[in-house]
Structure formats: structure tokens, C-alpha cells
């Protein structure tokens, strides 16, 4: 699917706000800075929702890209991207995440959530290169699922994910060691493990590999309850990372009491818990969050209801629990998209997810009133690091026979990470009457 050139986009909204031709505000005026200037000066996540988060010292940096791409106008970049894509034909596939800016999404062959895009990569094995216009963990997942001959390219290496970075592999290994000391290793006489690790798709390949090595599984925001049920069939408890909110919202909806969901803070001994709390736990939640979805509040929902009587409030399950509880519905990006597509009467929708997706849905469905709960324009900082200039650079390098910014997962990590992904694909929803947890 190729989406036409945007006539409305977050970039254009930001320019209008900056020029004073529209109301509203942004979380930072630095959003309008050239991304290569941000790459040159900023070792962090860049302007946007994650700008206050601390990037690990090991986070990849993006070196300077050639001046011709930094100096090119948007019209020139558009012409060069289209020409390079046409010449490369089936040799290249461009993937665009729902949260990516429209100025990049317009060139995507597929647009979707992280897992849809990773599986799309497997559908076109003739493509020698997959240019993933998303963030680092997504490109890693595409590399895990694609063929060894296919090169997965992240156009800007600085496009990480602050949430994924919150579960560092060394901290997770240390946590596991401490939990094994508390629970003891090995299964009981019924073959039940003391704890099963579950990682959200939004995690590094190293974490997926860890989970695979320890009998665990990956989940997405669409299948988290099915996956937790799978884990409870094999273990007394679940260690869920990196997103505490998805873990808490999902486990709560399954009937697990909040007092049996202690949080693990990796900077404290036993994660800041005592042994009794860990023994009584059903879900141990890692101390991670998404800074985009953390911005949504119950006050925003109350305001939307007051100003738009009858509004349908749908939020992503990465939002904090009080926000999910106050919304009418919560679900993945794909759920949100389908809910809007399925509305047969003109409807007001207040959406709690990333602004690029919300504005795109609003443009695609003018019969509805669709707006973001957060009145401040504050995109995902790391998605925002991808700009047409980087895409043009990646495509034209391929034409010259050079693969830049290849994301490649080592075999020692890839094998167990694939186990964890395959377990997820094989997990089936439990019968409705079954009891969650134990
Ligand atoms: S929206 Fe949140 S979880 Fe998704 S890539 Fe951005 S920081 Fe990461």
C-alpha cells in the first residue's frame, strides 16, 4: 500500500503552530529542528515524548549523513526517493510503522504495527533489502523473521525506543538470578515453573532471546491476555517486561488483584520488594513505560466527554491503568484502526495513542470527528528520528550496491528469540470460562 503525499500531517501541524496560523502547542519547539542537527548534538532520544528519558550509553548513534541529503529540499528528496524505489523495484521493501510521520509513510509498501510489519517482511522473500521506517527493536524483529539473505535497514540508527531500553539485558539477568534465589530453580512435581518470563514485542532481541532461553514467550498489545494465560498454564507467576502498564492492565482485566502485582525496580535489591511479596505475587511487573502513552490522563478524558457529548474514548493499553479504566475501550493500534473503520454512523472519537496515527486516521475518515486526547503535539521522539533524507540515503546507497545501517541479530540471540516468537504464534486464546492465574 502506498499512501499519497500528505496534505495534513504532524510536521505540517507543527509548522502551523510555529507560524502562529493555528492554535495548540507542542511539547518542544525543537521538533522542527533538522534531524541531522539533533543527531549531531544529542546523545538522547531527541525532541518529542521521550526527550526526558535517559538513553543508555550503549544506544547506537547515527553518524553524519552526506551533505547532499541534508541540503536537499523536500521536493528533491521526494523525486529521488520515488526514482530510487522505482529502479530498485522488487529488490527493496519499505515498511512504515503506524507512528511514523506521513512524510515517510507515503513511501511505504506496508504500513502497520510492529508485528504486522515484521511478518510482512517474511511475505516478500524476493526483496533483498527491507527498509524499516520504525525503531530499532522492530528492525531486529524483522531480521529475526526474514531470511538470512535479506538485509534489514534502519534509516537512522538513533531511532531506538525508550521503553525497550528500560529493560536492559544485564539488569534482567540480575533480576532473574535474584528471583531464582527466592523461588528456587526448576519445575514442581506437576511440571509447573516458579515463574515464566513474558516480554512485550517492544523489547530488544537480547530480551526476547533471554525469554526464549528460560521457557518464556513474547506478546503484543493484541494478544497479551492469551499469552499471559499460556504462561499461567506453565508457571505459578509471570515476570512481565518492559511495560508495567500493559502488564498491569492486562492482568487486572484477567482478575488478578493489584496487590499481587509488585513492581520490580532494577536499581533496588529484590526490585524493592520483600520475599513475602514476591512469594505472593502472580505478576512481577518490570519498571518500564512508554513516554508517549504516559502523557494521557483522566483529566483529558473528562474534558473530552464534557466538550464532545457521546464521544467514544479509545486508548492504548500502554496508558496508565486509571486512564484505561476511565476510557470506553482500550486496544492495540490495530484495534483502534478497526474500531474507527467499523463505525457506520458519524462518531466522535477521542484517541489515546501516538499523534501521527491519530491525525492520519482523522484525515482518512473525515465523516468522523477524531482527535488525540493530548492537546499538545508530542510525537514519539524516536520514530521521529526517521526523515525522508535518511530514507533517500538508504535507497540510493542500495542502488550503488551499498547496504547502510544494517540491523543484524547474532545467531546466539536469534535462535532463542525465535523460539519465544514461535511460542507466541502458537498460543491460542483460552476458553472464556477458564480461571486466570493461580
Ligand atoms: S511509542 Fe513508546 S513504545 Fe512505541 S516506539 Fe515510541 S517510545 Fe517506544
From TrEMBL:
Positions that bind [4Fe-4S] cluster: 161, 290, 380
SUPFAM superfamilies in alphabetical order: NadA-like (SSF142754)
Residues involved in iminosuccinate binding: 97, 114, 200-202, 221, 316-318, 333
Catalytic activity line of the entry: iminosuccinate + dihydroxyacetone phosphate = quinolinate + phosphate + 2 H2O + H(+)
EC number: 2.5.1.72
UniProt cofactor(s): [4Fe-4S] cluster
Localization in the cell: Cytoplasm
Alphabetic keyword roster: 4Fe-4S, Cytoplasm, Iron, Iron-sulfur, Metal-binding, Pyridine nucleotide biosynthesis, Transferase
InterPro entries, per database record: NadA, NadA_sf, Quinolinate_synth_A_type3
Cofactor binding notes: Binds 1 [4Fe-4S] cluster per subunit.
Classification via HAMAP family: NadA_type3 (MF_00569)
Listed PANTHER family: QUINOLINATE SYNTHASE, CHLOROPLASTIC, QUINOLINATE SYNTHETASE A
NCBIfam families named in the record: nadA, PRK09375.2-4, PRK09375.2-5
Name this protein carries in UniProt: Quinolinate synthase
Organism: Brachybacterium sacelli
Gene label: nadA
